[in-house]
Amino acid sequence: MRFKAIIFDVHKTLVDDSGFPRERIWKLMREAGAKFEMTAYYELYDSLTPQLFNWVALSPFIPIREIHRRRLKIFYERFQVSRNIDDDVNFLWQEMKTGAIYADVPQMLETVSQKHSVGLLSNADKDDPLIEILNESSHRFDVIITSEHVGAYKPAPMMFERMLNALNCRNTEVVMVGDSLMSDVLGAHQCDIPVVWINRTRKPWLPKYPKPDFEISNMQDLLRIL
Fold first, then answer.
1. Nearest partner of 11 among 149, 163, 177, judged by Cα
2. What is the pLDDT of residues 89-108, one digit of tens each?
């Protein structure tokens, strides 16, 4: 298949932020002297996070930073923690830069950019630290669009339409590469954009989502597809 442009998700597609900020929030509360069972914290985190970061249900739009603030507020109230929430959100934001570009990404980006335009399409704020990590690398992107730019989150079609307009491409001239069945696969499918699901941990495909056009476990496989 021949494409003019490649669109990439960021989190867990190009940059590894696995486990963030689960452990850091726990440490912030322990530093404040909060007393609680670790299992109680993990149970709340694992149940609360999918609810707050449910992209389809987030209406009206709020930025990612505000979602982090709301999550901290719930934790601090539940476990009676006295800390400055805004300061801690700023701390977590900076700590996000401990994420690392996957080892198979730099060479892939160098190769695809020789023949394709490259875009980033991310459920993120404009100042997202993981996008900063990519921008500070040797590679430069032709178009970067975040949810905060659009006022919506993938899988909303307007996110993909904004990217197509910015790239000056039709839906059949691009391919979306991402790790999320909901945000990336469903979102691209709704706009009839070919999609590559990067499934680094080999999770099972869930029948409630459309099947991706391709499934890969590393970026070298993407080069073979292209």
1. 177
2. 999 999 999 899 999 999 99
Residue owning tokens 């979102």:
187
**Mean pLDDT score of the chain, rounded to an integer?**
94
pLDDT band, residue 163 (cuts 50/70/90): very high
d(CA 38, CA 138): 41
Token pair for residue 34? 């909060």
Task: Confirm if 68 and 89 have CB atoms less than 8 A apart.
Answer: yes
CA–CA gap between residue 154 and residue 131 (Å, rounded): 16
- Asked if 148 and 168 touch (Cβ cutoff 8 Å), the reply is no
C-alpha to C-alpha distances, 27 to 81, 83, 145, nearest whole angstrom = 12, 12, 33
Pick the CATH number of 5-17+99-225 from 3.40.630.30, 3.30.70.270, 3.40.50.1000, 3.30.420.40: 3.40.50.1000
pTM beyond 0.90, yes or no: yes
With bands split at pLDDT 50, 70 and 90, how would you rate the model's confidence at 221?
Answer: very high
Distance between CA atoms of residues 3 and 169, nearest Å? 10
